[in-house]
Model the fold of this input.
Amino acid sequence: MTDTELLFNPFLPDFDADPYPHYQRMRDQDPVHEHPLGFWLVTRYDDVTALLRAKLSVESGNLAGGPIADQFQQLEDSTRALSMLDRDPPDHTRLRALVTKVFTVKAIAALEPMVTDLVDRSLDRVADGGRVDLIDELAFPLPFAVISEMLGTPPADHERLRELSGTLVRSLEVQTDPAVIQAINDAEFELTEMMRDIIEWKRANPADDLLTALIAAEHDGDRLTEDELVAQVLLLYVAGHETTVNLIGNGAIALLRNPDQLALLRATPGLAANAVEELLRYDSPVQQSRRITVAPHTIGGREIPAGAFVIAGLASANRDDRHFGPDANDLRIDRADARTHVSFGAGPHHCLGAALARLEGRLALGKLVTRFPNLSLDGDVAWNGRLNLRGAAKLPVTV
Done:
């Protein structure tokens, strides 16, 4: 089968800028799709939600073999594999309980004044620049500053961290290039050492912050081991900013390309929270989530064998007209069921940072569009080339 004949081929030239027609074709033609590269892709809303809530694995050791198992074997000798994102119960349950003790809804809500101040300062820079890259001036620095402030980390090389985390998140995608796999391993090693240094510094400089609380966190007499602590901090650091960069960037693009919805948000600021839900649905910051079958598993009328790598198509599910209706491909910030999107996943691995992402998205996008009535695109959007954490790498705007 040639590349052009593949039903799912993210390397087609138009996929990066707009994958949604490709997902629609999959939903219509083969919604539970077995790919020649050895993975399965599930694309309809009901099937995706069922997959996310099923008692399946995320641990690569349960793969039966094949190219995906080979990829994980090359990546798995790492501290990152100890993160709660990569563990099944009972380890996942224990790790999540420890992190949840300090990552509470109340703690997130208390961050609003700090996030508001950071947004205002970013928008001051945008105003001073006149014509700026919105990723560099708002979408990246805001969530990076927020997670750094929450953790209470010392000053760091932001650009290097951005570069390394951008490489590391490619481990969330199917990779066949040995050079990419090596780059991921190198980035992870460097990031892990940086996290160890940060944790060592924090032990010597405890404060009222998330990292100090994580170091001290105890649940039923249990504490994080040193490697587990490093893995959770690395997860929070990377997930705490990579995904929100996409929410802000993709959200701004969607509003600018739909001027009627942009005008509605400006005229009705009270819609900001629901607008964030709709923007999460319309162009999901995280496009996929993985599961591994531990026994034959039937979904969408097809039986997937044990040991299979299964991709839950979050972005595809969010555009499924079987759930969201005939206007599923349209942006509607007043959509009544927007919050039923699956951009934060579902089931036991539902995103722990959902409340934080919602807070940052509401403040950043709400303030951006109200402060700059003449905000407009000023050049071509450059996409980051990632399949899973798909977002804009460059977003030129004028205010």
The longest strand covers residues 288-292. The chain has a mean pLDDT of 91. Residues 3-398 form a domain with the Cytochrome p450 fold (CATH 1.10.630.10). The chain has one domain: 3-398.
